[in-house]
Amino acid sequence: MKYTQSVAEKSAVKLTISFTEEEWKDAISKAYVKTRGKYSVPGFRKGKAPQPVLENYYGKGLFYEEAFNYLYSQHYFTILEKEKENFTAVGEPELSVEDMTEGKGVTLTALVPVKPDVTIDAYTGLKIKKYEYNVTDAEVDAEVNKLLERHATETEVKNRASKNGDKVNIDFSGTVDGVQFAGGTAEEYDLVLGSGSFIPGFEAQVEGMKVGEKKDITVKFPDDYQAENLKGKDAVFAIKLNKIFEKQLPELTDEYVKANAGSETVKEYKDKTREKLIKQAENRSRDETENSIVDEICKHAKAEIPQAMVESEIDRMVQEFSYRLMYQGIKLEDYLKYLGQSMKEFRAQFNSQAETRVLQQLVIEKIIKTEKITASDKEIDAKVAEQAKSVEKTAEEYKKNMDPRQLDYIKNDLVISKLFEYLMANNEMYTEGAKTPAKKTSTAKSTATTAEKKPATAKSTATTTEKKPATAKTSTAKTTATKSTTTKTTAKKPAVKKED
Fold first, then answer.
1. CB 367 within 8 A of CB 124
2. Res 394 pLDDT > 50
């Protein structure tokens, strides 16, 4: 076997692989042995007919495809290993027969999509926005209030109108242009007013209704609503209010937090809560700043990205989305039925974002390689010791039982941290004044198509941001589970339900 390689267009390499007549005959012979059991010839037991008899009966090319597959499997990956310093394959090759001359063997060609080189005009000396977030007393109180919410009680009220914060039980029936639509009708549906769980305008118009009251309200579906037939449409909902429940929170006392929060006093619990929120704000500041750095550098970068890399990234994104649905007991195929989308249409939504993520990954890898950023054994050992201490083990004991992939993760984590330290030190970072974190929101649409802006190698936290990373700090070879936006949309909820 001999081969040559040449550069093809758009990040592809063409391998021309030639086999001698003897190699080709040997491949056909092996294909015959492997597949002869599938064929029958009169006068022979199935699988017992000689090779020439089968070729004469079914055609001379009977075993060609299997022979090609044999030659491919035996030699293609060996070639990739030999050429790993020259290129990295990123997808399945397009195979074809270039020449097959009797008595002269056969020549195959493989058009291999390869990882492209990325050109970065500048990654230092840039002016890049740095994000900073503070924690307010109101946010601490809101977080503390969540503890009280877990032990809240509800009392049915009948002598007043509904108000913000009440849970109401309603019947509703929605129409667009006078025609009912799927998911627009429900009976005895519980809705917390002010929760923002329904589309804008719905809950505000239910406020003020009394028990037994009927009312028609008009709302407009958002332009980016998940159902194509409802996007931007005006809808009329006939509402009947059945019941009103008023929420009553327990009193925040030292005794309450001691019993329910593991703190001795309200002050201690609030102090712990503030520390937690400050940590989250710091993580968010760091994540958004790193996003900002990568986004700015990518404006100065170019690469011919093969579609195979984009498709692989889409595979990961679809899998991430599917996992988030699974946590809620929903299958992706059921979700697509609810949206009225095919898998092809669903995947198409990710294409642009996948291209961005691939470019970000290439940019990060290129800078790490160019600047020779590495993690030393001493740094890795220190990180292992730190993790061991957190689980009350010695470093030796902890390392002995570690999955080898965890060491790769630690090494990559250190490299990525050092990368962003370098980029922050070598670019002009500016702020526009510290601000408080916005209320965390998420939509299934943004989760699927726009929310995950962070490169696969960068760090993330559970806090949702305007450019929230999709994955934890990782490398291409070690993608971790997502810690970003949690999708709550299900096919069981009414169409008026806002995806949150």
1. no
2. yes
